[in-house]
Amino acid sequence: xxxxASPLLVLALACGSAANDPQEPQHVEPASTEPSxxxxxxxxxxxxxxxxxxxxxxxxxxxxxxxxxxxxxGPGRQPAAQPGTQVVRPPAATRKPVLYFHLLEGEVQLRxxxxxxxxxxxxxxxxxxxxxxxxxxENVRIVARQCQRTSYPMPGSPPCDNIxxxxxxxxxxxxxxASDASCLVVDGHDYNHLFYRGGGTGLTLPLExxxxxxxxxxxxxxxxxxxxxxxxSGGTTPSARRDQPxxxxxxxxxxxxxxxxxxxxAAGSDSIGPSxxxxxxxxxALRRELARVGLTPPEIQAFxxxxxxxxxxxxxxxxxxxxxxxxxxxxxxxxVEFDPAPTEFKRAMVVRVEL
Length: 355
Hints:
Structural class: mainly beta
Order of helices and strands: EEEEEEEEEEEEEEEEEEEHHEEE
Number of strands: 22
Distance between the termini: 15 Å
Oligomer: single chain
Shape: globular
Helix content: under 10%
């Protein structure tokens, strides 16, 4: 049995897209200035360029324990429900994949097309043409100068007021800027990165968690080894210390967090008996894994700005399996085409499965 994203899967990446799904509504919007998401493949084309560049991407695929409605759609500001309504968190979500461009020589003007492999696009920044599963930035210029400050939208204002699920991740993007990324110029405005987000069904993931008497085992259904796999569970939050005098202000403590790390899970195999490690060592190990797959220190810090607290330190932490998706499987989430092609394209996609 494989783990599949059920009813809705929200994809927040920094570039990507896929062929249209006839069962999904086709959402079309005019050009503007907002982010987009997906995973990417390199293509060549006719766009002129006199320089060289590479691209780095990170994102997180979030799979809920069941199909119930939840308010949390991301780790930052939450969407506000209108009176008498609820904000729906899809059972699985790929969040905040962002694309950083690094200019190596000269100057580059390129076209970027993000295509999801399921569902439909929901959001992108800078805003541009979006249709079904695809978003296209026609004229992105990578320049060798300091970026001017980017103005991100506020919730409730354009383009945040016209998103199908009512959640605007573009308003959070300033926290995910990377200081070493090259400046992008799109329609005369400066940007640190490209972003997109989408939703749908049909994503199959490589690892299947299986409860056992002593804890958890993991089965790898794919043909690729998964080297970084951890099991996270949170304890209860004490209401107050017992020795705390009643007259003192109430001090609430963060819950205890239990983390166990599996050995690398080989293709087609099971792994049992993970070893306990302190949460801070798990965070450090994740940082090392993100560096191993190609992210720079500022890009890793941007990922941690988004995910360290909700994944490792949140007071309402859920039990979850966390792993880094093998590079060979990232295209199953989304693809991205670049014209002209970069010299390298490095992707780090983290998967969190709630248990």
